[in-house]
């Protein structure tokens, strides 16, 4: 078993209205000093069996095909756990 | 002509779209997201709404519905396809049209009678309009801001593929783009709702009817 995380973020040049809303709310709550907020998505995928290079390539494909829209979003795939042991 | 209107789980405007098609003199055919064929229709409308609850991204799940494989193949073969609002989002996610729709820059759901300029009346869905005609139809969306990279926007402008442009810019769309078409002019994506402007009784008038009567005109010409 392995856990793979896919982070999806709006591309830097794409306006992120949700991030802007959060940025606007922070000073109202007394949190100062934040100059920008970008909001994205995090997917945690539990992968069956051994995490081979092929399986990881398949996750990249999933991220590109479904989890993100490459027109407006970037994604990053990382392995966080294999066989229950945390990776350093 | 026979116009198929796809209903996805979460579609809202499928009934209005079928009604608009009938008012324009067509036969309206209800298609289901799980269908594996298009039932012999001559054209397809992907209606507005919140297909699959807008989960993940608007249109992202609908794109993989069984019926969409048929729609994509038919569109590539030249069948007229009109995506309205959520339908536009689905067409972008399907890569039948470039760009994407993101949340309105003002972050509010907008619902208003919107003026548009028809900038391309050579598509399957806009031939009933005069070039440069100004129309008023309903705009209602939360994620209607059209975005694409500069290169794509320049290409759309240069090739005359901006079908309709907002008068003013109600949602932060780049270059105030309200609707675009593919290279062949058979696939059109439009954020505002022409199907809500087809009768005097309700809505801002009948300016939207042209999107549905255009089809007959093109059909007759090519017959």
From TrEMBL, chain A:
Its EC number is 6.3.5.3. It is an enzyme of class 6 (ligase). The keyword Ligase applies. Signal peptide: none annotated. GO terms for biological process: 'de novo' IMP biosynthetic process. GO terms for molecular function: ATP binding; phosphoribosylformylglycinamidine synthase activity. It catalyses: N(2)-formyl-N(1)-(5-phospho-beta-D-ribosyl)glycinamide + L-glutamine + ATP + H2O = 2-formamido-N(1)-(5-O-phospho-beta-D-ribosyl)acetamidine + L-glutamate + ADP + phosphate + H(+). PANTHER family: PHOSPHORIBOSYLFORMYLGLYCINAMIDINE SYNTHASE SUBUNIT PURS. Belongs to the PurS family. This is Phosphoribosylformylglycinamidine synthase subunit PurS. It comes from Nocardioides pocheonensis.
Automatic annotation (TrEMBL), chain B:
GO terms for biological process: 'de novo' IMP biosynthetic process. GO terms for cellular component: cytoplasm. Pathway: Purine metabolism; IMP biosynthesis via de novo pathway; 5-amino-1-(5-phospho-D-ribosyl)imidazole from N(2)-formyl-N(1)-(5-phospho-D-ribosyl)glycinamide: step 1/2. GO terms for molecular function: ATP binding; glutaminase activity; phosphoribosylformylglycinamidine synthase activity. It catalyses: L-glutamine + H2O = L-glutamate + NH4(+); N(2)-formyl-N(1)-(5-phospho-beta-D-ribosyl)glycinamide + L-glutamine + ATP + H2O = 2-formamido-N(1)-(5-O-phospho-beta-D-ribosyl)acetamidine + L-glutamate + ADP + phosphate + H(+). PROSITE patterns: GATASE_COBBQ, GATASE_TYPE_1. Its EC number is 6.3.5.3, 3.5.1.2. It is found in: Cytoplasm. PANTHER family: PHOSPHORIBOSYLFORMYLGLYCINAMIDINE SYNTHASE SUBUNIT PURQ. This is Phosphoribosylformylglycinamidine synthase subunit PurQ.
